[in-house]
Amino acid sequence: MKKDNKKVIYWLLTGCVLIFIMVVVGGITRLTDSGLSMSDYKLITGTIPPLNDAEWQDAFALYQQYPEFQKLHSHFTLEDFKGIYFWEWFHRLIGRVIGLVFIIPFLYFLFRKQLTKSTIKKCLVLLGLGGFQGFLGWYMVKSGLVDMPDVSHYRLAAHLTTAFLTFAATLWVALDLMYPNKKVIDKKFRNLIIVSYLILIVQIIYGGFVAGLKAGLLHNHWPFMNEDKFMHHTVYILEPFYKNLIENPSGIQFIHRTLAYLVVASIFILWFKAREMTLTNVQQKSINALLILVGFQFLLGVLTIIYAVPLWLGVAHQVGAFFLLSAMTFTLHRFSK
After folding, report:
1. In terms of C-beta density within 10 A (0-12 exposed, 13-18 middle, 19 or more buried), how is residue 304 classed?
2. What are 272-297's pLDDT values in tens digits?
3. Looking at residue 235, what is its pLDDT?
4. CA distance 82 to 74
5. Read out DSSP for 13-32?
6. 256 marked ligand binding residue
7. 185 in Cβ contact with 337 (< 8 Å)
8. How far is the C-alpha of 314 from the C-alpha of 132, rounded, in Å?
9. Are 259 and 290 in contact (CB under 8 A)?
């Protein structure tokens, strides 16, 4: 039987779709403050939600023991709790489904010898990334169960970024099988794509910082951060100064805004340079898609700030980042050797 066949490609692309769904649900979970509703982690029994009133009361009683209920949600009724519980449970359920969808077909293809050695090695890396992503999810939630009812923005950014990178890596492996024959291209142009890719990754990390510190609820003006002022005089400064770059919500929002301009500029440069090159139809379409997506994503970012992160805009902005990373991954692959 032919190795690395279409079934393997469909399997990998199915994983990409599931990771996308998980990121969307994760965004809803974060924006609805649902992430700390399940304060324990049971790999098997946690798959099934409470099924009767007694089980719901037990789950609610456990939630009441932790800082989020005691400091923020002491007014919650059982019905309120059920609302936030659903999203965190659904988020974890999708994570379990992804694990099964990856491991079971992988073992099947491995047993049937339908994978080349190269693909096996790549899939083992994907398996490691998936396991690490699950660990980061638990590690993130744990940070919000101690003293403060908020998860660490560092851990949230790590959890979010790893999800994006796991998706990108899975897509890359699928593209390797879809386009096995690569040709030599302009190395300088490929390096420009890599630089743009790295800027986008840093931007995604800062998007996690913004989400973790709820920095999007501050400075809800554009193009300036405070009406007609570049930075308002009441913005506090942390000491030492470097903390303003990684812990100050105002500073983090400023960097996230600035990086948005850099992402747009880098992709515009790619598009402009590509006009001078002889490209395949797929390469040209990938560059054009980047330009369209980055413009749309920039607009979503501006609207998200102006309207102080309503749920639908916050999720749409995260989805836009996902599509942009997908297009960037595809473009880099099509301009690789």
Report:
1. buried
2. 999 988 888 989 999 999 999 999 99
3. 57
4. 14
5. HHHHHHHHHHHHHHHHHHHT
6. yes
7. yes
8. 25
9. no
Q: Give me the pLDDT at residue 229, please.
A: 60
Sign for the CA dihedral angle at 266, 269, 273, 275 comes to positive
pLDDT tens digits, one per residue of 198-253: 999 999 999 999 999 999 998 898 888 876 665 554 456 777 888 888 999 989 99
Closest CA to 24 of 320, 319, 296: 319
Task: State the amino acid at position 163 in one-letter form.
Answer: A
Residue 8 to residue 116: CA distance in whole angstroms:
11
Sorted by sequence, the CB contacts under 8 Å of residue 253 that are 6+ apart come out as 210, 215, 216, 218, 219, 225, 305
Measured between its terminal Cα atoms, the distance across the chain in Å is 28
According to DSSP, the residues that pair with 226 across neighbouring strands are 229
Asked if pLDDT for residue 332 goes beyond 80, the answer is: yes
Q: Is 229 helix (H, G, I), strand (E, B) or coil?
A: strand
Is 146 a residue whose pLDDT tops 90?
Answer: no
The one-character DSSP state at 2 is: -
* Across 261-271, average pLDDT: 96
Distance of CA 252 to the CA centre of its chain: 18
